[in-house]
Amino acid sequence: MIGERVQTIRKEKGLSLTELAERAGVAKSYLSALERNIQTNPSIQFLEKIANVLQVPVDAFLKKEKSAECLLDKEWLHLMEEAIQIGVPKEVMKEIVEFYRWKITKQQN
């Protein structure tokens, strides 16, 4: 279950397995084994590294998947709906997220 949630969130964030492993500083083989449910009991330190890169709380890996409406408050939903209505392409939204991720990384270093 944890591995499936990690994989789902990773894909939602548009990261490959390799990218996530490198950014989190974890072994790609271990991450792969976790996502395939071969490893089922990762350490909290491992989950914290992954959660930091994915910008989610660690407990996001432990909860059952929620609908988008449960994960986003009304203001976020309104902003996303407005962006869709005015024709903001997904690629532009991905660039914004990547820029913000880069900015956070620069601030942390």
Tell me the structural class.
mainly alpha
User: Which word captures the global form?
Assistant: globular
Q: N-to-C SSE series?
A: HHHHHHH
CATH class of the largest domain: Mainly Alpha
Low-pLDDT ranges? none
Instruction: Quickly count the helices.
Output: 7
Write the CATH fold name of the largest domain: 434 Repressor (Amino-terminal Domain)
Number of strands: 0
Biggest sheet character:
none
Organism: Aliibacillus thermotolerans
Protein name: Helix-turn-helix domain-containing protein
Domain Sin: 63-101
Pfam families: HTH_3
How would you summarize what this structure contains?
With 109 residues, the chain is mainly α.
Question: What does the model show?
Answer:
- With 109 residues, the protein is mainly α.
- It folds into two domains: 2-61, Orthogonal Bundle (434 Repressor (Amino-terminal Domain)), CATH 1.10.260; 68-108.
- It has seven helices and no strands.
- It has helices spanning 2-12, 17-24, 28-35, 44-54, 68-71, 74-85, 90-108.
- α1 (2-12) packs across α3 (28-35) and α2 (17-24) packs across α4.
- The longest helix is centred in the C-terminal third of the chain and has 19 residues, at 90-108.
- The termini are far apart.
- The relative contact order is 0.12.
- Keywords: DNA-binding.
- Residues 6-61 form the HTH cro/C1-type domain.
